[in-house]
UniProtKB/TrEMBL annotation, chain A:
InterPro entries: Fe-S_cluster_assembly_SufBD, SUF_FeS_clus_asmbl_SufBD_core, SUF_FeS_clus_asmbl_SufBD_sf, SUF_FeS_clus_asmbl_SufD
Gene that this polypeptide is encoded by: sufD
Pfam families referenced in this protein's UniProt entry, alphabetically: SUFBD_core
Domain annotation SUF system FeS cluster assembly SufBD core: ranges: 177-399
The name this protein goes by in its record: Fe-S cluster assembly protein SufD
From TrEMBL, chain B:
Keyword terms of this UniProt record: ATP-binding, Nucleotide-binding
Family to which the UniProt record says this protein belongs: Belongs to the ABC transporter superfamily. Ycf16 family.
Designated gene of the protein: sufC
Protein name as catalogued: Fe-S cluster assembly ATPase SufC
Coiled coil segments of this chain: none
Pfam families, A to Z: ABC_tran
């Protein structure tokens, strides 16, 4: 009827209008170069947020983003967040709890709760100019981002271990924040980061992370996404890895109603390596998506991906993995494996591997498996006296093992192990 | 007075492409406490099905009969309850559990059973000590405890691992489903020793086998011949020798 009347229907309007009108209000008070924000706003004005017709968003529907009216991030008092942080730290083990940390409260860096590392440079940053044709979530981040940090490890230095903790709190109205983190490692430097996101209430956390790994440097990045049950959790990583450098990331998705962890990694120097691994444990109506685009631009690089999904209830897991091998990237070694364990009839996995190869001497493989728990294995355990919940937990843990053991930082891996055990305890109860 | 294990008129079917196929056709068997019984019979006679039905595997549907174990209705119990009550099945084809550490698996099983029996659980140190001692007694390399359950184990190692589980779980009634098949003479002796070590007035075993050799070591109290889903004949240890000499054909003809 609207079409006949010539009036635009709500569905035909700009689905980013809520965010855009907030930007119009805040434009002059946000920190940093307003031109950079305007570029992002102009793109969102033009294109809106992607709908499911857009191939990259076919399996993950962003509709809740425009169906919810977000009110920005309300300030959280450090006094209120302190006990939450302490409770979290107490579950991480002494070694982790004593590590340096950056703490974000609703997307804003908390000076009082953070504990800065000695050897690593931490700078407050605001959106930096990024190339035109932004990823839509990055455009949203760039337009509204209120705070961010740049973490820099000087050449030749071991930056040790660093926690990056995001605590969210949106008790009264849906809130949103768009934090920005940039991690740069100088030549031969190293750093191990554990990122933990959690919160309460309904919020959109839309982080943008840029990673730059110089020659021979090595970044380990583990992420525990334990966002609130009604949260929408997005994290987008753009990584560039130079010669002999390595970036190793693991994303454990447990929380949020809608989540996407997306990595765009570019191997720009010979013998560089990138590992994008993860596990998604979902229940109820949860949707979690791990999307990666790995570009091999230089010869003799290797990329590895092992992603596991454990799906209960009506949960849906999504894996999209694309490997692009440019013509100069001879002797590329690319591997991708996505596996799903469906624990209920209604659970669903959508997997889309893609290879795009322009070089002629490469080794690229990908695989996917989908299955239920093995009845014979279950019976074997039960026949030894192990009750069903415990037997299922053992088999699920075994299923996850070859992904989890790829997390090289042992104390951080322990945190992920514990989180998985807690997740299971919650199911069995 | 309630018997130790009493099977009467047991019938069971398995789903065969949508229609039930009857495998057990009225099995009657009494095993008193403290006795070792053997079941022999040609392939397809229902021996393994009997062992699975007794341990509670769900692929089989019990369509008739009763099984009582120490006065309890065994068929009404979940597989893990049967294990806690003291029933143990040594699998003919032990299942591989990739990603599950053998020591963890054994400790989880032992402690689950101890919990169900209201006994204190073993901590990691206590358990490892016990497991290493048993492994040694069974001439098993302690390295096997560190590997994934049955993954990459040879046939003999898998069977020894079953006997190790039996030794640690201390069942009151053990079913050994062709635990001797594919074993060399040394491994065979180990299996036999494993059963002998448990022999007591309150322990019984049902040994399913094709070979006389294991029975030479174990010396069963009774031997039963099973064919076409029923026990056709029972007797003393001499029956096994008779079978070894004459084969099953005579018995089958006699029963037909």
């Amino acid at each position: 009827m609207n079409a006949i009347g010539g009036r635009p229907s709500p569905a035909g309007g700009n689905n980013a209008s809520g965010f855009l009108s907030r930007y119009a209000e805040l434009r002059d008070s946000l920190p940093g170069d307003v031109c950079v924000r305007d570029v992002a706003a102009a793109q969102l004005e033009r294109e809106g947020l992607p709908r499911r017709e857009v191939e990259a968003w076919k399996y993950t529907n962003l509709r809740p983003l425009w169906d919810t009216s977000f009110a920005g991030g309300s300030a959280v008092q450090e006094a209120d967040a302190g006990p939450v942080l302490d409770a979290l730290l107490s579950t991480l083990g002494d070694e982790n709890a004593a590590s340096a940390r950056l703490v974000f409260l609703n997307g804003l860096l908390s000076d009082g709760l953070s504990r800065l590392p000695g050897s690593v440079t931490i700078r407050r940053t605001v959106p930096q100019p990024l190339p035109a044709g932004l990823h839509p979530m990055l455009a949203l981040n760039q337009m509204l981002s209120a705070d961010g940090v740049a973490i820099e490890v000087p050449a030749g230095l071991d930056g040790g271990r660093l926690l990056v903790i995001g605590l969210g709190s949106a008790e009264h109205a849906p809130a949103d924040w768009h934090a920005r983190v940039s991690i740069a490692l100088g030549a031969g430097a190293s750093l191990s980061v554990l990122q933990i996101d959690q919160g309460t209430g309904c919020y959109l956390s839309n982080a943008a992370i840029t990673v730059s790994v110089a020659e021979g440097a090595s970044l380990r990045h583990a992420r525990l996404q334990r966002d609130a049950a009604s949260a929408m959790s997005f994290a987008l990583v753009h990584a560039q890895i130079a010669e002999r450098g390595s970036y190793d990331v693991f994303n454990l998705a447990l929380g949020a109603t809608l989540a996407r962890f997306e990595v765009h990694a570019r191997l720009v120097g010979a013998q560089a390596a990138v590992h994008v691994n993860g596990a998604q444990l979902l229940d109820g109506e949860q949707v979690a998506d791990l999307t990666s685009v790995i570009s091999h631009d230089a010869p003799n690089c290797n990329s590895r991906q092992t992603v596991k999904n454990v799906l209960q209830g009506r949960a849906r897991g999504v894996f999209q993995g694309k490997i692009v091998v440019a013509r100069p990237a001879q002797k590329t070694d690319g591997y991708q494996m996505n596996q799903a364990l469906l624990l209920s009839e209604q659970a669903e996995i959508d997997a889309k591997p893609e290879l795009e190869i322009y070089a002629d001497d490469v080794k690229c493989s990908h695989g996917a498996t989908v299955g239920a728990l093995d009845e014979e294995q279950l019976f074997y355990l039960r026949s030894r006296g192990v009750p069903v919940p415990e037997a299922r937990a053992m088999l699920v843990q075994a299923f996850l093992l070859d992904a989890i053991e790829l997390v090289q930082d042992e104390p951080f891996r322990q945190v992920l192990d514990d989180a998985i055990a807690t997740w299971w305890a919650g199911r069995a109860a | 007075m309630s018997q130790f294990l009493s099977i009467s008129g047991l019938r069971a079917t398995i789903d065969d492409q949508g229609s039930p196929k009857e495998i057990l056709r009225g099995v009657d068997l009494e095993i008193p406490a403290g006795e070792v019984h053997a079941i022999m019979g040609p392939n397809g006679s229902g021996k393994s099905t009997l062992s699975y039905v007794l341990s509670g595997r769900e692929d089989y549907e019990v369509t008739g009969g009763e099984v009582s174990f120490e006065g309890r209705d065994l068929l009404a119990m979940e597989p893990e309850e049967r294990a806690a009550a003291g029933v143990f099945l040594a699998f003919q084809a032990p299942v591989e559990l990739p990603g599950v550490n053998n020591a963890n698996f054994l400790r989880t099983a032992v402690n689950a059973v101890r919990r169900a029996r209201n006994e204190p659980e073993l901590d990691a140190v206590q358990f490892l000590k016990a497991a290493r001692a048993e492994a040694k007694r069974l001439s098993m390399d302690a390295e096997m405890l560190k590997r994934n359950v049955n993954v990459g184990f040879s046939g003999g190692e898998k069977k020894r691992n079953e006997v190790l589980q039996m030794a640690l779980l201390q069942p009151r009634f053990a079913i050994l489903d062709e635990t001797d098949s594919g074993l060399d003479i040394d491994a065979l002796r180990v299996v036999a020793e494993g059963v002998k070590a448990l022999r007591s007035p309150s322990f019984s075993a049902l040994v399913i086998t094709h070979h006389q050799r294991l029975l030479d070591y174990l010396v069963p109290d009774r031997v039963h011949v099973m064919a076409r889903g029923r026990i056709l004949k029972s007797g003393g240890p001499e029956l096994a020798h008779q079978l070894e000499a004459q084969g099953y054909a005579g018995f089958l003809a006699e029963a037909a």
